[in-house]
What we know:
The complex is a heterodimer of chains A (about 160) and B (about 675). Chain A is an all-alpha fold. Chain A contains eight helices and no strands. Chain B is built from nine helices and 46 strands. Chain B is mainly beta and about 675 residues long. The complex binds copper (II) ion.
Amino acid sequence: MKKRLNTLLFLIAAFWFVGCHSSSTSEQQAAASTETPSASASTSTANPLDDKGIGPVQSVQLGPIQSELAKKGEAIFNEKCTACHRIESRYIGPALKGVTKRLAPEWIMNMILNPDVMIQQDPIAKQLVNESNGAVMANLHLSEDDARALLEYLRSIDDSSSSR
Amino acid sequence: MKPIIFSRPMTQVIPMLAGIIAMAGLLLASCQARRSSEAGAINAQEAAQRVYVAPGKYDEFYAFMSGGYSGQVSVYGLPSGRLFKIIPVFSQNPENGYGYSEETKPLLMTSYGFIPWDDAHHPELSQTNGVPDGRWLFINANNTPRVARIDLKTFETVETIEIPNSAGNHSSPFVTENTEYVVAGTRFSVPTPQQDVPIDSYKKNFKGVLSFIKVEPSGDMDLAFQVIMPGFDYDLAHAGKGKSKDWVFFTCYNSEEAHTLLEVNASQKDKDFVAAINWKKAEAYIQQGKYHQMPGTYYDNRFDTSTQTARSFVHKGVKVLIPAECPGLVYLIPAPKSPHGVDVDPSGNYIVANGKLNADLSVFSFDKMQQAIQQKQFDGEVNGIPVLKFDATLAGIVKSGGLGPLHTEFDDKGNAYTTFFISSEVVKWKLGTWQVEDRQPTFYSPGHLMIPGGDSRKPWGKYLVALNKITKDRYLPTGPELCQSAQLFDISGDKMKLLLDFPTVGEPHYAQAIPASILMPQSDKIYSLANNRNPYVTKTEKEARVVRNGRRIDVYMTEIRSHFVPDNIEGIHLGDTVYFHLTNLEQDWDAAHGFAVEGNRDNAELLLMPGQTKTLKWVPQRVGVFPFYCTDFCSALHQEMQGYIRVSAPAEQVALSWSTGKE
Ligand SMILES: [Cu+2]
């Protein structure tokens, strides 16, 4: 009994100290992320296109651009994303032109769907937050279908600009 | 007397001891009882283990505590005693702009106009089949009579309804078994309807009105009818349950009908009454048209969750029933002496009325009461209301040995627990045997007590919270004004065990608690932006704009981490009134933003949850350029979340313009 009490007191003390240094929110998010099906761990990735990010999207089948889907994506982009993003230029976050050439489609969708965990754990996302002076990507709770449409819209931009 | 768990230097105990000695021999018996009961206390380490909720872990129960004269409700976790939220109800709350935003101001409207404060007393959870169901929490305003409804998905006040012909709405807001009605009884009898009469015409002109508020399945409240009772003070109430579910019981004191120095004059008689009202009969009498229409203007203020805006509806007139014209509607049960609480056990058979100037508890039997009614065992009448014979309705008397019994709650094992204000203790006794099983001191002077579900058909009898009126010497002193306090007991065993002291906000008159497993899964995380129908919503930054209409300026402004659109506004002139309509574009849990602008004389800030729209009125007082900013630390760039509004002299030619960034 006495030993258990001592352990408890030690734990209280330990939490006290830990609490001073790290936020419990990040601890919880870290815990949450282990439950999320995560694609390949990305710490040692050399090619950014191999980083699929962390989130619900494991793999995306890409074909020719579906223009209807891209149009839906454009509408969502104009309504939801323009608070922080422009296509051609950096705004609050990075310019999105060329993003589908630079990063994996899974990564892009996971960044849209699971930004809280991505900015804590994914090396590329962490880097981007740094480049944006600490502005974080907001989780707008879009559906996977919405994220897929946004991806198609971004692909359509990169497709037309590269073919020009 | 020294509490076992929380020891303190002797010097702090001395003033308390002096007070106790002043109470002389009266208390000796209970002091001895306390000493013997210290065997039931546990050591500090064991108590700590029982109440310790580790970081990241959750409490077992939500407890809703009355905020008393703060006019609010506070939400605590049990067993930790941690404070989670303060829900503003009857008082403006600068912390989140309740009663300051244009959307919430109507919730504080009354027939007297806008009232920024009240005194909240009794939280009451809605029930289904006599069990708390987690839909709503009701609470009464004691000063300007009102009842409020809080939605337990959002933990926000969604309705306030005023009670006409009432004063000091104290015996309120207790619910019937399926939340068909919320009752509200007047503490102060007043001229009914109100009129200018001499105060000493009390016996002739003053009446006590008991109100029944119908609760629709949607939760909307309507004042259904009132019962005009003798000019007593109606103190507390509880509805029956099970076999007694058609009845509501009200205690009253001042059956002497005194109007001055009640301290003496309302304590003359040996017995006052419990008034038993059959609300099913009342419904039938209303349907038969046996009511009178009485004047009385009152407000019903409803918060529409789709527009996120409250609206006031003004009603005139109310249906009233007069007991003398409605046989079987009301009976009076004599109860000694100035009864305070009236509490019905989980079976619905026993009705406990505690005469606060009496040492014993009178327990009445619903079965015996029904029998007495059938056999007409009456002891005269008051204003045409039959008075039942005391002995014919009495089930038993609890010889408590304590002083100043106030309130009783129940566990799920056939036990009852009663607070004793004067002797500062909780006494546990058994239903049926009427024998005292245990007693524990509280620190000090408990009013109500609360067991989760303890006034329902299904108590979760693990914890008991005593709500104390006096806290001197229990905490670090904070000058003359001290916090109020609650004390948590473990009641799972034979003996009650004191586990924890924790401070409360305002005066914690009454409280209710419900398992976290009921409320947690239904708690909302955000307001859906897509479903936001506030007429002033701005759903995208592109729609942000400033509109002039004469002297009125409407600013349609958005917030998202970490900027406003627009954040530069010019072309405002002295003499204009500016309405900032803020929409938080975030859709992520806990991504709140605030809004405050310098020199706002009449209002506080806004605090906006994700997807919410709220409006702040601002009347510029000076020429200049004034900053506004986000008040809720929302992100790493929160300090950057700011903007300017320029105010020009009326004669200046400055065009209306707005922008964010340069593109
Ligand atoms: Cu902010």
